[in-house]
What does this fold into?
Amino acid sequence: MDMTFRHLEIFEAVVETGSFTKAAKKLFITQSAVSHAVHDLEEMTGGPLFDRLGKSVRITKTGELLLQEAEPILTASKALEARLHTLEKNAPIHIACNITIANFYLPARLQAFSKAFPCTSASVDVIPAATAIESLQRGKSDLALVEGTVPQEPFSSKDMGAYALKAVCAPDYPLKERQLTLPQLCKEKLLLREAGSAIRDTLDSQLYLAGCKAYPAWCSVNDSALLAAARAALGIAILPEAYVSEELKKQHLVELSIPDLVLENRMYAVWHRDKYLTKPLRALIEMCADIHQPSKKARSFAPSPSATK
It folds into this structure.
């Protein structure tokens, strides 16, 4: 015979009521079921748990020892039962996010999210897109916010819009014209993100289709390093507009025109298609899908036809 939680629950009811009959009424079961449960426990403990005193019972020393062991279990169970309806709201969310989204778009969304769901914690890993998708695949992340190409099966995604890229250089960088063709661009000293990054993939794919290839003078995982190199007139950098807008306003950098180059990166919220989406996670996806609009309160989310599957 194995002891079950029901055995302890019945045992506690007998202790509290001092009667098998009253315990049965309290638990809405038969007195016979109470007697059988107590008998099972007494078989397991090897001695009586109650002294039978006519119509009432009194707990024995053995019963008191069992009660001491059982009470924390029963208390924890009752506490858990009271919290069951809040568990989904308390389930933490882990996000894998590309650096540009993390720098310029995610913080305001998480701030609004935390106000709407104060009991739901959100942690973030800032990693490359390929690593973020791998994290989803392995179940280490609940949501990936990535740039570039939308992932295919087994993922679902929601378009977050796009951010502009700018080709920039220092005013004194030696150029005859500030408008370049793609072959002319590739002959310049280029300050580029590392191969495999979303920004670099956007550039390389367009150059490839045009029969061109970039050979960067600088290659970095750090946009700030490329920005500093561009300011020092070491070459031409292609960076998110958000990184260079202030430098352009201050005329520390100038923008170049490259008519044949589409300078933008699309962003996507991505999750595994088979993953259950909690209400807070669905709300966060909805907020991120409207990332270029003013932050707004999370609302009930229902998957829409626009979600890519």
